[in-house]
Amino acid sequence: MKFVAFERNKQGTGASRRLRITGRTPGIVYGGPAEPALIELDHNALWHALKKEAFHATVLDMEVDGKTAQVLLRDVQYHPFRQEITHVDFQRVDANTKLTMKVPLHYSGEEESQAIKFDACLVNHVLNELHVSCLPADLPEFIAIDLSGLKKGASLHLNDITLPKGVSAITRGKANPVLVSVVATREEAPDPAAAAAAPAGKGAPAGKAAPAAKAAPAAKAPAKK
After folding, report:
1. pLDDT beyond 70 at 222
2. Between residues 223 and 64, which one has the greater pLDDT?
3. Please, what's the b/e burial string for 169-185 (b: 16 or more CB within 10 A of its CB; e: otherwise)?
4. From CA 13, how far away is CA 206, in angstroms rounded?
5. Which DSSP category does 35 fall into?
6. In this model, does residue 11 exceed pLDDT 90?
7. 27 near 5, Cβ under 8 Å?
8. CA distance 19 to 16
9. CA neighbours within 13 Å on the CB side: how many for 109?
10. What is the DSSP code string of 153-217?
11. If we measure between CA atoms, which residue out of 75, 86, 92, 78 comes closest to residue 29?
């Protein structure tokens, strides 16, 4: 994905404020052997670019004064209550140096899985992005994961998927984190035949009638005078 930036000669709070008034966003490019470079970008173009997932998760081609350099988006700062980007940071990319990046996870096929289609389970996406390490040329825009094989009571872990070639996952805490969990949303109804065959509660033994209760003695009639 390609975007255009311009060199920025002035810096400081006042200069950045005046720049934003003109519809530009101040930024910086750092990393690599070169010194950090001050840049500015068209605010509206940047605003629309940030709505695209690829702008956050892929190597970008930045054109400045007719020269193109590969960079990664590293940080975006927004105004507290206005729809305004106040600053943006990019990092230069070296083709021979591995980089670390968060890559989106794209799930599909869960509606066709046994867990949803037959067992009415709920599928929770525990992770929606994965921290990976790879060379810039191997960085994927996203990682596609097929959930059509999900079954009731099973969860999908990191070790259950195949990562793209040259890409390794970076995990912190758990070596094999859960990506997707399956939760039952209803209890199964009891089997009527099993309920009929269930033993009765405590009481008289089967086949024997309970002894009849003794009749109360009849009341005596009053003696005649």
Report:
1. no
2. 64
3. beeeeeeeeebbbbeee
4. 92
5. P
6. no
7. yes
8. 5
9. 12
10. T--EEGGGS-PPTT-EE--SS-SS-EEEEEEE-SPPPPPHHHHHHSPP-SSSPTT-PPPPPPPPP
11. 92
User: Hey, which residues does 133 pair with through a beta bridge?
Assistant: 100, 168
Measured CA to CA, the distance from residue 80 to residue 197 in angstroms comes to 67
Q: Please name the residue that has the structure tokens 């065959």.
A: 197
Report how far residue 119's alpha carbon sits from residue 111's, in angstroms, rounded to the nearest whole number.
11
The 10 Å Cβ neighbour count of residue 121 is 23
| Between residues 28 and 210, the one the model is more confident about | 28
**E strands along the chain, which residues?**
2-7, 24-30, 37-42, 60-64, 67-78, 85-92, 99-108, 121-125, 129-134, 143-146, 156-157, 168-169, 178-184
pLDDT value at 189 more than 70: no
Please, are residues 102 and 142 in contact by the beta-carbon 8 Å criterion?
no
Overall size of the chain counted in residues: 225
The whole-angstrom separation of Cα 62 and Cα 67 is 8
pTM of the predicted protein model: 0.73
CB within 8 Å of 72: residues ≥ 6 apart = 59, 60, 90, 91, 93, 99, 101
> If pLDDT is split at 50, 70 and 90, which confidence band does 32 have?
confident
pLDDT of amino acid 154? 87
pLDDT of residue 197: 55
Chain centroid to CA 188: 29
For tokens 């009765």, name the residue: 200
